[in-house]
Design brief:
Helix content is 44%, strand content 19%. The protein is an alpha/beta fold. The chain has two domains: 30-124 and 251-319, Bordetella uptake gene, domain 1 (D-Maltodextrin-Binding Protein, domain 2); 126-224, Periplasmic binding protein-like II (D-Maltodextrin-Binding Protein, domain 2).
Length: 324
């Protein structure tokens, strides 16, 4: 091959994107956009900003948070799914994108299994069953007896239809054969306010939003949906301990990119994410939120997401929950 032919071949290869390893060697060389499918100031946004600052230190590039709320996270997710797979557009993804929405919507603009590159899990925090302090039942056993004796007469709050809190109670109802009436709110704050005020007696509440009111005794915590007791609430039994098996309920988050990202770029982002978990600022933020970091590989994150989708699909179907 003469020199002119060689140069022409190399130029064509670079233009076609057929050698992603060449680009990945120098990654990143420009600002990274981190899409958060929720408004600024919420828990997902705060976690993304905390992690992005830690990752900026090791990546050597600025990371800009781009809040794109709407359609139960589908707007932000679709933007990333249709972005160039070069590692410069990533997404904060939670239960909605990863496990719920494919069952809640008849049609999505993306396929969560095929249209994304899985980069790494961020963390998870369990949900706990809480009641107003004046609710007649003082413990889980009494609560279960009360709702069974009053089918349809006890209401529960949630931040909205299709939220982890809503589906956690639907799983609880499925496992216990109870009938509790759903009162959806627009966000966790008003739902918590009405449970604390006694307008609605109970809800499943995540530790990220509600740890302070749980520890402050503004609500009574009956059980927690984790595999083991929480160090933050050591006196609260797990649902399994009180006789509700196969009922672990938690919210979890991770980072996705568009399908087809270069493996070297994925591995770099995954390594920097896992390193961020060791920084004091991230560890403090996670502790404040009651969040458990989930360091691991992209493959482990993908496996968790698919397992959660398979676990929640039947619950959503049995409860006949649809968001479109």
């Amino acid at each position: 091959m003469d020199r002119r032919t060689l140069l022409t071949t190399l130029a064509a290869t670079a233009a076609s994107g057929a050698a992603p390893w060449a680009r990945a060697q120098d990654y990143p060389t420009q600002i990274i956009k981190w899409v958060v499918p929720y408004p600024a100031g919420g828990g997902t946004d705060v976690i993304a900003r905390t992690l992005s600052e830690a990752m900026r230190q090791t990546l050597g590039q600025q990371i800009v948070i781009d809040n794109r709320p709407g359609a139960s996270t589908n707007i932000g997710a679709d933007i990333v799914a249709k972005s160039k797979p070069d590692g410069y557009t990533i997404l904060s993804a939670d239960n909605a994108v990863l496990a719920f929405n494919e069952h809640l919507f008849n049609k999505l603009p993306f396929n969560p299994e095929k249209d994304f590159t899985y980069i790494g899990a961020i963390g998870k925090f369990p949900l706990a069953l809480v009641v107003h302090p004046d609710f007649p039942a003082q413990d889980f056993k009494a609560f279960l007896a009360y709702v069974k004796a009053n089918p349809g007469k006890v209401n529960y709050a949630s931040p909205g239809n299709g939220s982890p809190h809503h589906l956690a109670m639907e799983m609880f109802k499925n496992r216990t054969g109870t009938f509790i009436t759903h009162i959806p709110y627009r966000g966790a704050a008003p739902a918590m306010a009405d449970v604390m005020g006694g307008q609605v007696p109970c809800m499943f509440l995540d530790l990220a939003s509600g740890l302070s009111i749980m520890q402050g005794k503004k609500v009574r915590v009956l059980a927690i949906g984790s595999g083991a007791r929480s160090k933050l609430l050591p006196d609260v039994p797990t649902l399994a301990e009180v006789g509700v098996p196969n009922s672990e309920v938690f919210a979890f988050q991770g980072i996705l990119g568009p399908a087809g990202m270069p493996p070297a770029v994925v591995n770099r982002l995954n390594a920097d994410l896992n390193k961020a978990f060791t920084t004091p600022a991230v560890q403090k933020r996670f502790a404040d939120f009651g969040m458990e970091a989930m360091p691991g590989s992209p493959q482990q994150f993908f496996a968790l997401s698919r397992a959660e989708s398979q676990r929640w699909g039947p619950i959503i179907k049995a409860a006949n929950i649809k968001l479109d």
